[in-house]
Amino acid sequence: MLAEGINIGKAFGIPLRIHYSWFIVFVLVTWSLAIGYFPQAYLHWNLATSILAGVITSLLFFASVLVHELMHSLIARSAGIPIVSITLFIFGGVSQMGEEPRQPQVEFRMAFAGPLASLVLGGIFLAGWIWLRSIPQFEFAAAICRWLGPINIFLAAFNLIPGFPLDGGRVLRSLLWWRSGNLNSATKIASNAGRGIGYLLILGGVFIVFRGDLISGLWLAFIGWFLENAAANSYRQLALQDMLRGHRVSELMTHDCPVVSPDMVVMQLVNEQILTSGRRCFPVVRNDRVLGLVTLHDIKAVPRERWDVKTVGEVMTPFSNLKSVGPDEDLTTALKMLTEQNINQLPVVKNGKIVGMIARDNLLSFISVRGELGAK
């Protein structure tokens, strides 16, 4: 979900995105600084100066969050973990990794790198404030540094809270993992700690609301709710991956894939194939050469009155644009692709040819049956 948003460029080859929810918190932080913090701290400033300082400070704050996430990503990438993107969203930032760390030492370095970067930034901004505060012509810059120093230190401290999936929770998990050698057990403990901290934040938010500070209380409770959900989902995701690990795509894929001609009209495909078989996708082939894949989604994008004139070749997804998996790949890879791409099936390709299909329904049924049997 967080992969969606606006692309803003790359840093060290890593795509950077801003999620749409980021604009909400950017406006809130800017408004709080421009209307509340700066007018109270610098009574002689006019409104325009406070607003300008608020905008610049808010942008630098999120640049600091970006540096925090970049440090995670660079350490992870140095350990061979692919980084898909970094996204700024309403609660800060998140690095989307292509896979989880395979060693506790790697996770420890990766998790600790972000808070360390925030601590260094906090020290730099505080040093800048101390240096500039006595120089009248640099009051504007000193004021910005005065806010950014403590907030970066707070960011580091908050992220080091030992509750998964916060950085401190990842540090805790890495230490438990290193000591026990059991990733599942370590994740369960760290996730439960994260859920507990989430509940405490929710209770703290409710208490603050009853004390009369509605906005701060609701915001703290919202953060607690997000942390509790993220912790629970993180453990479920790991348990799911563990259940699928060691099983190959070839075990669940369907081998009988009826092919269709690119010259067939959509109406004929619907009447003769989809309605009679219940299948949702078909390889499009001409002279034993796979041209692409036509799915129910492709057909629904065509106005119904055009079904008798549009051909399959015109509406299909070309083979070069297809997301696919190999028959020997792990089922966790297939599930991840199905989820991230929000699709219901994937072609299974070997040596440039479609040898089968794997569907989300098959995977979910496999997971359900293994869960009922208590299989590990």
Provide a descriptive summary of the structure in words.
It is built from 13 helices and nine strands. The protein is of the alpha+beta class and 376 residues long. The protein folds into two domains: 6-244, no CATH class; 249-373, CBS-domain (Roll), CATH 3.10.580. The strands form three sheets. A four-stranded mixed β-sheet has the order 1-2-3-4. A hairpin with a 2-residue loop joins strand 3 (83-89) and strand 4. Helix 3 runs antiparallel to helix 5. The longest helix has 32 residues, at 47-78. The model has no long low-confidence stretch (mean pLDDT 87).
Which key features would you list for this structure?
alpha+beta, 2 domains, CBS-domain, four-stranded mixed beta sheet
Compact overview of the structure:
A 4-stranded mixed beta sheet has the order 1-2-3-4. Strands 5-6-7 form a 3-stranded antiparallel beta sheet. The chain has a two-stranded antiparallel ribbon with strand order 8-9.
- Total strands: the figure is 9
Kindly name the structural category.
Answer: alpha+beta
Task: Determine the oligomeric state from the structure.
Answer: single chain
C-alpha Rg (nearest Å):
26 Å
Major sheet:
4 strands, mixed
Overall spatial form: elongated
Quote the distance from N terminus to C terminus: 28 Å
How much of the sequence lies in strands comes to: 5-15%
- Order of strands across the main sheet: 1-2-3-4
| Topology as a string of helices (H) and strands (E) | EEHHEEHHHHHHHEEHHEHEEH
Number of domains: 2
Mean pLDDT: 87
Task: Give the helix level as a range of percent.
Answer: 55-70%
Low-confidence runs: none
Counting DSSP H or I runs of 4 or more residues, the number of helices is 13
